[in-house]
Protein 1
Amino acid sequence: MRFFDAHCHFDFPEFDGRREQELASAKAGGVQGLVMPGVRRSDWARLVSLSAPEAGLWYCLGIHPWFVAEHGLDDLDALEAAVASRLPGCIGVGECGLDGLRGSFVEQAPWFSAQVGIAARFGAPLVIHSVKAHDQVAALLRSERWQGRALIHGFSGSYQQACKFIELGCYIGVGGVITHDRAKKTRDVISRLPVEVLVLETDAPDMSPAGVAKGQNSPLYIPDIFAQLAGLRGDDKEWLAEVLMANVGEFYGLAPEVLAPN
Ligand SMILES: [Zn+2]
């Protein structure tokens, strides 16, 4: 079976010095590639330099809601210019969005709308961070008349909230949350959603699966998340793995063979 990690902060310093080894272990487990989301402009150059599409290493550029205060309008211009120039390896806008646990919606919303606008103008997929903000994120996508592909990464929320996102054309990111027994609600929701909207991700080094220390998450845990997902849904594993590859390929707009080369 082959897998892909749709959202992994593999550029973060936590992986310095062990990136190659980590990637080799992940690949040995069938994880044939990953996408590194951008969170702040000061990290964008690092993403560009780590990008290696031929090895399955891709990235997105964006401004995360936690870091909006360190940015200015020129950073949005730079983002737009980068997306317009279609750099090899850059396959989306994000992660951007809203976070009800850190900062304020009033501060975050203009940055989110601007990035929704950039993704819309260039037909780029949009990677969304939505924490305690699902209703606000859905409302903003609706008011921006969003028509493209979006991923609600690391989703945890109600069935109704997930359905509202799906109606808006969103994919739902499934991560380590579902490996925790305490996440009953999210486990139940994910088991009931249509399989064609599901995308696997780790959000490593954060969002550790059960049994993995905080901050020690890695793309090599994708098969564990996958096994939980297959168990929760009762799906045939081989079949589910291929459907998930097709889903992430559709979301990022690349054939699975291109996205996750052997
Ligand atoms: Zn993230």
Protein 2
Amino acid sequence: MAIQALGYLGIGTDRLDDWTDYATNWLGMQAVNRGAGVRAFRMDDRKQRLVVDRSLAEGQRYFGWEVADAAALDALGARLEAASIAVTREPKSLADQRFVSDLVSFADPFGNRLEAFHGAQIADEPFRPGRSISGFRTGPLGMGHAVLMVTNVDTALAFYRDLLGFRISDFVRGPLTGYFMHVNPRHHSLALFEAPFNGMHHLMVELYSFDDVGQGYDIALGDKEKIVATLGRHPNDLVTSFYMHTPSDILVEYGWGGVEVDDATWQPHEMTSVGSFWGHHGLFDALGAPPPEPPATRRAPVQVMEGNFHRMSGVCPWWDSIKARS
Ligand SMILES: [Fe+2]
């Protein structure tokens, strides 16, 4: 029954043209025409990942959580119903709209519409990014991560961790209370922050190339009011990213270099600070909290994948002595 990834996200909005411009020219997604009232965006070989829909009210959203197959979907539905959660077996017409084989829908304790699905359709045509990027890091890691604000984090944990099987990567208890949770090697596919309101804070998408993020930052710098948090590096998932407004009330985090979590060795742990290694100025204002005081001494190796780095040749006696001392 296990949820494996954040497969897709749907957003209700009237601002279809603004979203199309933003998703293609800023983020580098590929727009796909879905007829009047709906725009879909590709990030990879799938037919769609992000959908904006005029028939949904502004602020309405649906989160598509992926399971392996029909048996896993049945098992998840049965587990939810055993916990007295209402589950709707959605008709084929909706599965066709989502470009998946089958789905069920249900709500989390805060009214967010969740969909669980299997069998996402692959497009016949290769992905053609809306601007020149190397591509999004998706595949088994899903489309990225979602961060939700919830009025009761314990209630959220009972639902997402205990019922749906999300696993805690790490958590923080001050100045905010937040839990980062994984369902695959991505450090978190979902993060939950306690707040006086329920809502979605941001969607994170991860790029293959650091330069994709830097060039996206250059584009955003052309319209500085769109930047919510400056380029910076997170201490837990080690992502280097910046945050920007979207045509809707959610933010997008545009990032690179996320660490992978291995359940065989990873231990959930409490962080003493959620403050970034550097940068991300403005992020905590957006989260409604004062910025934490980050110890200015934290750093970590960059996370790279095969084919995405060159090892520097030679040695430096000075640097080697620094490393030996640390
Ligand atoms: Fe994030």
